Protein backbone atom coordinates (compact mmCIF):
# COMPACT_ATOMS: atom_id res chain seq x y z
CA UNK A 1 0.00 0.00 0.00
CA UNK A 2 1.18 3.50 -0.82
CA UNK A 3 2.44 5.58 2.12
CA UNK A 4 -0.22 8.24 1.51
CA UNK A 5 -3.06 5.74 1.74
CA UNK A 6 -1.56 4.22 4.87
CA UNK A 7 -1.19 7.63 6.49
CA UNK A 8 -4.84 8.54 5.93
CA UNK A 9 -6.03 5.15 7.16
CA UNK A 10 -4.19 5.73 10.43
CA UNK A 11 -5.40 9.31 10.78
CA UNK A 12 -8.93 8.11 10.21
CA UNK A 13 -8.61 5.36 12.78
CA UNK A 14 -7.37 7.88 15.35
CA UNK A 15 -10.00 10.46 14.42
CA UNK A 16 -7.17 12.87 13.56
CA UNK A 17 -6.72 15.45 10.83
CA UNK A 18 -3.76 15.92 8.48
CA UNK A 19 -1.42 18.90 8.49
CA UNK A 20 0.52 19.01 5.24
CA UNK A 21 3.16 21.75 5.06
CA UNK A 22 4.53 22.97 1.75
CA UNK A 23 8.18 23.94 1.43
CA UNK A 24 10.10 25.34 -1.50
CA UNK A 25 13.07 23.10 -2.30
CA UNK A 26 16.29 25.10 -2.57
CA UNK A 27 15.08 28.08 -0.54
CA UNK A 28 17.86 28.49 2.01
CA UNK A 29 20.00 26.13 -0.09
CA UNK A 30 19.19 22.56 -1.08
CA UNK A 31 21.44 21.17 1.65
CA UNK A 32 18.92 22.14 4.33
CA UNK A 33 16.10 20.18 2.68
CA UNK A 34 16.69 16.88 4.59
CA UNK A 35 16.79 18.58 8.00
CA UNK A 36 13.63 20.57 7.20
CA UNK A 37 11.78 17.40 6.24
CA UNK A 38 12.85 15.71 9.48
CA UNK A 39 11.83 18.75 11.53
CA UNK A 40 8.38 18.98 9.93
CA UNK A 41 7.77 15.32 10.69
CA UNK A 42 8.79 15.91 14.32
CA UNK A 43 6.44 18.89 14.55
CA UNK A 44 3.52 16.72 13.48
CA UNK A 45 3.24 16.88 9.68
CA UNK A 46 1.20 14.02 8.18
CA UNK A 47 2.95 14.43 4.81
CA UNK A 48 5.12 17.09 3.18
CA UNK A 49 4.63 18.86 -0.15
CA UNK A 50 7.99 19.72 -1.66
CA UNK A 51 7.81 22.49 -4.27
CA UNK A 52 10.06 22.72 -7.31
CA UNK A 53 11.06 26.32 -8.15
CA UNK A 54 9.91 27.43 -11.59
CA UNK A 55 10.21 30.68 -13.54
CA UNK A 56 6.48 30.94 -14.43
CA UNK A 57 4.59 29.74 -11.36
CA UNK A 58 1.07 30.73 -12.42
CA UNK A 59 -0.73 29.64 -9.22
CA UNK A 60 1.83 31.07 -6.77
CA UNK A 61 1.35 34.21 -4.71
CA UNK A 62 4.16 36.61 -3.66
CA UNK A 63 5.58 34.56 -0.72
CA UNK A 64 6.00 31.36 -2.74
CA UNK A 65 7.17 33.32 -5.81
CA UNK A 66 9.90 35.03 -3.81
CA UNK A 67 10.97 31.69 -2.31
CA UNK A 68 11.10 30.27 -5.85
CA UNK A 69 13.26 33.15 -7.03
CA UNK A 70 15.65 32.63 -4.11
CA UNK A 71 15.81 28.90 -4.87
CA UNK A 72 16.49 29.48 -8.58
CA UNK A 73 19.21 31.99 -7.65
CA UNK A 74 20.78 29.22 -5.57
CA UNK A 75 20.96 27.18 -8.78
CA UNK A 76 18.35 24.63 -7.68
CA UNK A 77 17.40 22.11 -10.37
CA UNK A 78 14.77 19.37 -10.42
CA UNK A 79 17.53 16.75 -10.79
CA UNK A 80 19.27 17.97 -7.64
CA UNK A 81 15.98 18.08 -5.73
CA UNK A 82 15.21 14.47 -6.64
CA UNK A 83 18.71 13.42 -5.57
CA UNK A 84 18.32 15.29 -2.27
CA UNK A 85 14.99 13.62 -1.57
CA UNK A 86 16.60 10.24 -2.25
CA UNK A 87 19.30 11.12 0.29
CA UNK A 88 16.72 12.23 2.90
CA UNK A 89 14.21 9.43 2.36
CA UNK A 90 15.58 6.99 4.95
CA UNK A 91 15.33 9.62 7.73
CA UNK A 92 11.73 10.59 6.92
CA UNK A 93 8.79 8.24 7.56
CA UNK A 94 5.89 10.34 6.27
CA UNK A 95 4.83 10.69 2.62
CA UNK A 96 6.73 13.10 0.38
CA UNK A 97 4.71 14.76 -2.36
CA UNK A 98 6.48 16.59 -5.15
CA UNK A 99 4.74 19.71 -6.48
CA UNK A 100 5.90 20.89 -9.88
CA UNK A 101 4.47 22.55 -12.95
CA UNK A 102 4.46 20.47 -16.11
CA UNK A 103 7.25 22.29 -17.88
CA UNK A 104 10.17 21.12 -15.70
CA UNK A 105 8.87 17.54 -16.07
CA UNK A 106 8.86 17.92 -19.86
CA UNK A 107 12.37 19.29 -19.82
CA UNK A 108 13.48 16.38 -17.61
CA UNK A 109 11.78 13.78 -19.82
CA UNK A 110 8.57 12.18 -18.55
CA UNK A 111 9.79 8.59 -18.28
CA UNK A 112 13.09 9.43 -16.60
CA UNK A 113 11.27 11.79 -14.24
CA UNK A 114 8.88 9.05 -13.12
CA UNK A 115 11.66 6.52 -12.81
CA UNK A 116 13.89 8.85 -10.80
CA UNK A 117 11.21 10.04 -8.39
CA UNK A 118 10.13 6.45 -7.84
CA UNK A 119 13.69 5.49 -6.97
CA UNK A 120 13.96 8.52 -4.70
CA UNK A 121 10.92 7.34 -2.72
CA UNK A 122 8.50 10.10 -3.72
CA UNK A 123 4.93 9.05 -2.88
CA UNK A 124 2.84 11.56 -4.78
CA UNK A 125 2.88 14.32 -7.35
CA UNK A 126 0.92 17.56 -7.73
CA UNK A 127 1.00 19.09 -11.22
CA UNK A 128 -1.28 22.14 -10.95
CA UNK A 129 -1.21 23.19 -14.61
CA UNK A 130 -2.18 19.76 -15.93
CA UNK A 131 -5.96 19.41 -16.35
CA UNK A 132 -7.73 16.05 -16.35
CA UNK A 133 -7.92 16.17 -20.17
CA UNK A 134 -4.12 16.28 -20.48
CA UNK A 135 -3.07 13.85 -17.80
CA UNK A 136 -2.74 10.82 -20.08
CA UNK A 137 0.70 12.31 -20.71
CA UNK A 138 1.97 11.05 -17.38
CA UNK A 139 -0.81 9.54 -15.24
CA UNK A 140 -0.39 5.94 -16.53
CA UNK A 141 3.36 6.02 -15.84
CA UNK A 142 2.83 7.42 -12.36
CA UNK A 143 0.25 4.76 -11.67
CA UNK A 144 2.56 1.99 -12.81
CA UNK A 145 5.20 3.40 -10.45
CA UNK A 146 2.64 3.53 -7.61
CA UNK A 147 3.00 7.27 -7.28
CA UNK A 148 -0.27 9.02 -6.45
CA UNK A 149 -1.31 11.86 -8.73
CA UNK A 150 -2.92 14.41 -6.40
CA UNK A 151 -5.59 16.40 -8.25
CA UNK A 152 -6.93 19.86 -7.51
CA UNK A 153 -10.46 21.20 -7.52
CA UNK A 154 -11.47 24.79 -6.89
CA UNK A 155 -14.45 26.85 -5.74
CA UNK A 156 -15.46 27.25 -9.38
CA UNK A 157 -15.25 23.58 -10.39
CA UNK A 158 -18.78 22.24 -11.15
CA UNK A 159 -19.82 19.42 -8.83
CA UNK A 160 -20.12 16.92 -11.71
CA UNK A 161 -16.50 17.55 -12.60
CA UNK A 162 -15.46 17.29 -8.95
CA UNK A 163 -17.11 13.85 -8.89
CA UNK A 164 -15.24 12.83 -12.02
CA UNK A 165 -11.91 14.02 -10.61
CA UNK A 166 -12.44 12.48 -7.17
CA UNK A 167 -13.48 9.17 -8.74
CA UNK A 168 -9.95 8.78 -10.12
CA UNK A 169 -9.20 7.81 -6.54
CA UNK A 170 -5.57 8.75 -6.01
CA UNK A 171 -4.15 9.94 -2.68
CA UNK A 172 -6.36 12.83 -1.65
CA UNK A 173 -8.33 15.59 -3.29
CA UNK A 174 -6.67 19.01 -2.97
CA UNK A 175 -9.50 21.49 -2.56
CA UNK A 176 -8.47 25.07 -3.25
CA UNK A 177 -10.24 27.36 -0.77
CA UNK A 178 -9.92 30.69 -2.62
CA UNK A 179 -10.54 32.12 -6.07
CA UNK A 180 -6.98 33.15 -6.67
CA UNK A 181 -3.35 32.39 -5.99
CA UNK A 182 -1.49 31.02 -2.94
CA UNK A 183 -0.85 33.29 0.04
CA UNK A 184 -2.06 34.01 3.57
CA UNK A 185 -5.68 35.33 3.81
CA UNK A 186 -7.53 36.77 6.79
CA UNK A 187 -10.88 35.44 5.75
CA UNK A 188 -12.54 33.08 3.31
CA UNK A 189 -15.67 33.33 1.12
CA UNK A 190 -18.85 32.72 3.10
CA UNK A 191 -19.82 29.83 0.83
CA UNK A 192 -16.54 27.96 1.40
CA UNK A 193 -17.84 25.69 4.14
CA UNK A 194 -20.88 24.57 2.15
CA UNK A 195 -18.59 23.93 -0.81
CA UNK A 196 -16.15 21.85 1.28
CA UNK A 197 -19.06 19.85 2.64
CA UNK A 198 -20.33 19.18 -0.88
CA UNK A 199 -16.86 18.09 -2.04
CA UNK A 200 -16.50 15.80 0.96
CA UNK A 201 -19.87 14.20 0.22
CA UNK A 202 -18.94 13.20 -3.33
CA UNK A 203 -15.31 12.23 -2.75
CA UNK A 204 -14.32 8.62 -2.16
CA UNK A 205 -10.82 9.83 -1.17
CA UNK A 206 -9.72 12.16 1.67
CA UNK A 207 -10.32 15.86 1.09
CA UNK A 208 -7.69 18.43 2.06
CA UNK A 209 -8.17 22.20 2.02
CA UNK A 210 -5.35 24.45 0.90
CA UNK A 211 -4.57 28.09 -0.01
CA UNK A 212 -4.70 31.03 2.39
CA UNK A 213 -4.46 29.04 5.64
CA UNK A 214 -2.14 30.34 8.35
CA UNK A 215 -3.85 30.23 11.76
CA UNK A 216 -4.95 27.46 14.12
CA UNK A 217 -8.42 28.96 14.17
CA UNK A 218 -8.74 28.60 10.38
CA UNK A 219 -7.39 25.05 10.58
CA UNK A 220 -9.90 24.10 13.26
CA UNK A 221 -12.80 25.64 11.33
CA UNK A 222 -11.87 24.01 8.03
CA UNK A 223 -11.15 20.53 9.38
CA UNK A 224 -14.73 20.33 10.63
CA UNK A 225 -15.60 19.83 6.97
CA UNK A 226 -12.59 17.97 5.57
CA UNK A 227 -9.71 15.65 6.42
CA UNK A 228 -6.87 18.12 6.74
CA UNK A 229 -5.10 21.26 5.55
CA UNK A 230 -2.17 22.23 3.36
CA UNK A 231 -0.20 25.26 4.58
CA UNK A 232 2.37 26.80 2.25
CA UNK A 233 3.10 30.51 2.44
CA UNK A 234 3.06 30.63 6.26
CA UNK A 235 5.55 27.75 6.52
CA UNK A 236 7.78 29.22 3.78
CA UNK A 237 7.77 32.56 5.61
CA UNK A 238 8.64 30.99 8.98
CA UNK A 239 11.52 28.99 7.48
CA UNK A 240 12.89 32.08 5.78
CA UNK A 241 12.81 33.94 9.12
CA UNK A 242 14.13 30.83 10.86
CA UNK A 243 11.23 31.11 13.30
CA UNK A 244 11.01 27.44 14.21
CA UNK A 245 9.33 28.08 17.55
CA UNK A 246 6.31 29.69 15.90
CA UNK A 247 6.19 26.80 13.42
CA UNK A 248 6.18 24.23 16.20
CA UNK A 249 3.45 26.16 18.05
CA UNK A 250 1.33 26.49 14.92
CA UNK A 251 1.54 22.75 14.25
CA UNK A 252 1.14 21.71 17.90
CA UNK A 253 -2.57 20.89 17.51
CA UNK A 254 -1.59 18.14 15.05
CA UNK A 255 1.39 16.85 16.95
CA UNK A 256 0.00 13.69 18.56
CA UNK A 257 -0.18 12.21 15.08
CA UNK A 258 3.47 12.44 14.35
CA UNK A 259 4.28 9.17 16.09
CA UNK A 260 2.03 7.01 14.02
CA UNK A 261 3.96 6.88 10.78
O1 LIG B 1 0.59 29.20 0.31
P1 LIG B 1 -0.75 28.80 0.76
O2 LIG B 1 -1.76 29.85 0.52
O3 LIG B 1 -0.73 28.28 2.18
O4 LIG B 1 -1.24 27.59 -0.18
C1 LIG B 1 -0.57 26.29 -0.25
C2 LIG B 1 0.32 26.24 -1.41
O5 LIG B 1 1.32 27.21 -1.24
C3 LIG B 1 0.97 24.98 -1.95
O6 LIG B 1 0.17 23.87 -1.83
C4 LIG B 1 1.29 25.32 -3.38
C5 LIG B 1 2.33 26.10 -3.77
N1 LIG B 1 2.28 26.32 -5.11
C6 LIG B 1 1.16 25.74 -5.59
C7 LIG B 1 0.62 25.74 -6.87
C8 LIG B 1 -0.57 25.09 -7.09
C9 LIG B 1 -1.20 24.40 -6.06
C10 LIG B 1 -0.66 24.38 -4.77
C11 LIG B 1 0.50 25.06 -4.53
UniProtKB/TrEMBL annotation:
Protein's UniProt name: Tryptophan synthase alpha chain
UniProt pathway: Amino-acid biosynthesis; L-tryptophan biosynthesis; L-tryptophan from chorismate: step 5/5
PANTHER family reported in the protein's UniProt record: TRYPTOPHAN SYNTHASE ALPHA CHAIN, CHLOROPLASTIC (PTHR43406:SF1), TRYPTOPHAN SYNTHASE, ALPHA CHAIN (PTHR43406)
Catalytic activity: (1S,2R)-1-C-(indol-3-yl)glycerol 3-phosphate + L-serine = D-glyceraldehyde 3-phosphate + L-tryptophan + H2O
Residue positions of the active site: 49, 60
Family, per entry: Belongs to the TrpA family.
SUPFAM superfamilies: Ribulose-phoshate binding barrel
EC number: 4.2.1.20
One function term, GO molecular function aspect: tryptophan synthase activity
Annotated keywords: Amino-acid biosynthesis, Aromatic amino acid biosynthesis, Lyase, Tryptophan biosynthesis
Description of how the protein assembles with itself and partners: Tetramer of two alpha and two beta chains.
Function: The alpha subunit is responsible for the aldol cleavage of indoleglycerol phosphate to indole and glyceraldehyde 3-phosphate.
GO terms for cellular component: cytosol
Gene name of the encoded protein: trpA
Ranges that cross the membrane: none
Enzyme class: lyase
InterPro entries: Aldolase_TIM, RibuloseP-bd_barrel, Trp_synthase_alpha_AS, Trp_synthase_suA
